[in-house]
Amino acid sequence: MVIHMTKESLIQNLTMPWKWWFFLLSKLPVAWFAGLRLASFEADLAVVRLPYSWFSKNPFRSIYFAAQSAAAELSTGLLCLYALTEQAPMSMLVVKMRADFYKKADKPLLFQCEMGKVAQAAVEEALATGEGVEFELVSEGRLPDGTLAAKFWFTWSIKRKKGNPGH
Q: Cα separation of 33 and 24, whole Å?
């Protein structure tokens, strides 16, 4: 049995704490262990909270870059997932990542991506052309006072899965 989720139900489900934890535990266990939380999720915006904790920090008393990368990727990936919901089955994959670090992350971070429209346009292009599409989404990690600590650029690739001619 195939269950088709709507965009609204995706947001409703992932913003329910117990369903969020189940999603992370079943799909992204590293994110679950790191304690990533969904702070906000809408069509054009995803905000992921990364705690400053024993599991996320490094020996230099700051948040480990890999934990930051996971939170940043998740903020962009949620917008891709949203854009792919209600469409023909498609695959999504990070093909490139770049990061700049500006400030020591010694407090919790909020990673925010506001590029849902870019993800939606890429999905529409991939469906219209039948070809794979690469596009870049940016996530900024900010300290509680709003100071920019890190910025990540993720290049995503999406394409229709083979054997699925249409919707």
A: 9
CATH code where residue 18 lies: 3.10.129.10
CB 111 within 8 A of CB 47: yes
Query: Can you tell me which residue has the tokens 């600590």?
Result: 149
Tokens 């209600």 appear where? 86
Q: What is the DSSP string of 84-149?
A: HTTSS-EEEEEEEEEEEE-S---S-EEEEE--HHHHHHHHHHHHHHSS-EEEEEEEEEE-TTS-EE
Tell me the C-alpha distance between 138 and 5, whole Å.
26
Q: Tell me if 166 is assigned to some domain.
A: no
**Each residue of 5-45: pLDDT tens digit?**
888 888 888 888 888 888 888 888 888 888 889 999 999 99
Task: Tell me which H or E stretch contains 152.
Answer: strand 148-160
Structure tokens at 84: 């792919």
pTM of the model: 0.88
Distance from C-alpha of 91 to C-alpha of 6, rounded to nearest angstrom: 18
CB neighbour list of residue 14: distance below 8 Å, 6 or more residues apart: 20, 23, 38, 41, 78
User: pLDDT digits over 94-107, tens only?
Assistant: 999 999 999 999 99
Q: Which of 167, 95, 80, 79 has its CA nearest to residue 127? A: 167
* Counted domains in the chain: 1
